[in-house]
Amino acid sequence: MSPYELIVAPFTEFEFMRRAVVGVFALALGAGPLGTFLMLRRMSLTGDAMAHAILPGAAIGFLLAGLNLYAMSIGGLAAGLLVAVGAGVVARATELKEDASLAAFYLISLALGVLIVSLRGSNVDLLHVLFGTVLGIDDPTLLLISGITTVTLITLAVIWRPLVMDCVDPTFLASVSRSGGISHIAFLALVVLNLVGGFHALGTLLAVGLMMLPAATSRFFVRDLSALVGLSTLVAFLSGVVGLLVSYHLGTPSGPSIILVAGIAYGFAVIFGPAGGVLSRLAPGRHLEA
Amino acid sequence: MSAQISFRNLTLGYERHPAIHHLSGEVETGALLAVCGPNGAGKSTLLKGICGALRPLGGSIDLNGIAPRDIAYLPQGAELDRSFPIHVFDLVAMGLWRKAGLFGGIGRRDRDRIEEAIATVGLQGFEDRPIGTLSGGQMQRTLFARLLLQDARLILLDEPFTALDAATTADLLDLVRRWHGEERTVLAVLHDFDMVREAFPQTLLLARRAIAWGPTCDALAPERLLEARRMGEAWREDAPSCEAAA
To answer: Is B78 in contact with A171 (Cβ distance < 8 A)?
Structure first.
């Protein structure tokens, strides 16, 4: 098989592959910065909790309207935002820490979703919600994902300054401005929005993977915030493209393939990463003069 | 002299338990006031109350025309995430928030001011250092550079010199003196009585209430300090409601 047949031909020959690569590109643009901030704020598992939180909302949408893009998106969005905002408000207004309040909210949401599904007694095929169908992305889905990415990038540009300050020195930001709480909740809302966009392609549970794995990978190569965001986005996009090709050639499901490629990049970074990877710690080289 | 801060029968505390009990008095505009007292006397609580981070349980604090946003507040052992990948320059630049806000650009003149502030605290050449690589003293110098840029009329410092060496303390104390010379009002929580006697004309000796408040030599007289040490750290779950609160 020539390199052309291996890498280029699948995209030139099949429209569904071209759609998939555009979808993955849009997802990566949002996942890069969001994953970086989730990691830097030590909220890596928050993304996972959010993914569980939107699952019942999407399932309810599916129950009511079938495999309808908008019903499932709105359901997932509503459930996710409810959990994100509720947990954020409880954490800021009471003494309970963010992780505990988030766990409480998403577990309630998950249990409620499962209960509603079982009450309906319908044998719902949730495989689509769980694992997505990146190769089945149609025009409306592509527009939804691109729209979400656009909103994400604009919102991030608006809240960037308070978001960074809230990460570094929340006490200081609180002493000069009230924007810390707002930017935090806006950030959580963006995470939910992107997970909803991601679940059509990758499924709720794997959508987090496109945020966290590239961010964790980049941390082993660069230390600067802007570089982290840029590299995370690039790793997410390349994982998507390579994962799609693996899926195409080997006939594996696309979502898990993409995330596993990102996982391989992560494993490589853990071992060979110059910024604190295993090898750089085992053999740091001679110490410097100053 | 007009008053910058007026405390009126102020009670501050946590979960209805007072840490400061019925404090009244005034801090004059341009005062350089040391806040002293044993651990648990309510010193940090008082600063939190002034900057608005803590709501009074009773009484009031009047800032006489200064908004809480116009106060520069350096908390004790500032809770910074030092692992966050940001440079000294950017951390100091946060001091321009009041001017730049959410979107305001940082122009050429602002960059000059930031670099000047970094130079003033003796950190030239550190602009591009990640904050995670700074020593304790360098971090405190960075935070003072940020205070410089905040250009606030009222400056609150909570144990600003704790765990610093003599040279760093002297440099930063010079900045405090400079702020005093510019007629800014400065309140500093301190434990080093020798430094207070040398550099701070006014002292408030706290032990949940004001034991003494006035010229430092009177406030830190031996019998006053003895009285402050007798303060019980009385947090009792079954404490009755304070009658004077009514």
So the answer is: yes
Residue B235 has pLDDT above 50, yes or no: yes
131-190 in A: which are within 8 Å (CB) of B? 158, 161-162, 164-165, 167-177, 179
Question: Each residue of B144-178: pLDDT tens digit?
Answer: 999 999 999 999 999 999 889 999 999 999 999 99
User: Which amino acid appears at position B163 of this protein?
Assistant: A
- Residue B92 scores a pLDDT above 50: yes
B49 close to B10: Cβ distance less than 8 angstroms: yes
The pLDDT assigned to A174 comes to 85
Q: What is the pLDDT of residue A122?
A: 55
Domain boundaries, chain B: 1-66+153-246, 79-151
pTM of this prediction? 0.86
Of the candidate ranges A197-206, B103-112, B145-154, B210-219, the one whose mean pLDDT is the lowest: A197-206
Q: Which fold has domain B1-66+153-246?
A: Rossmann fold (3.40.50)
**Minimal Cα–Cα distance from B84 to chain A, Å?**
6
Subunit contact B81:A174, Cβ cutoff 8 A: no
With an 8 Å Cβ cutoff, are A40 and B97 in contact?
Answer: no
For residue B232, the model assigns a pLDDT of: 61
Query: What pLDDT does residue B244 have?
Result: 67
Q: Which residues in chain B are closer than 8 Å to A179, comparing Cβ atoms?
A: 102
CB proximity under 8 Å: A 24-43 to B: 40
Q: Which residues of A touch B86 (CB under 8 A)?
A: 164, 168, 225
Check residue A270 and give its pLDDT.
96
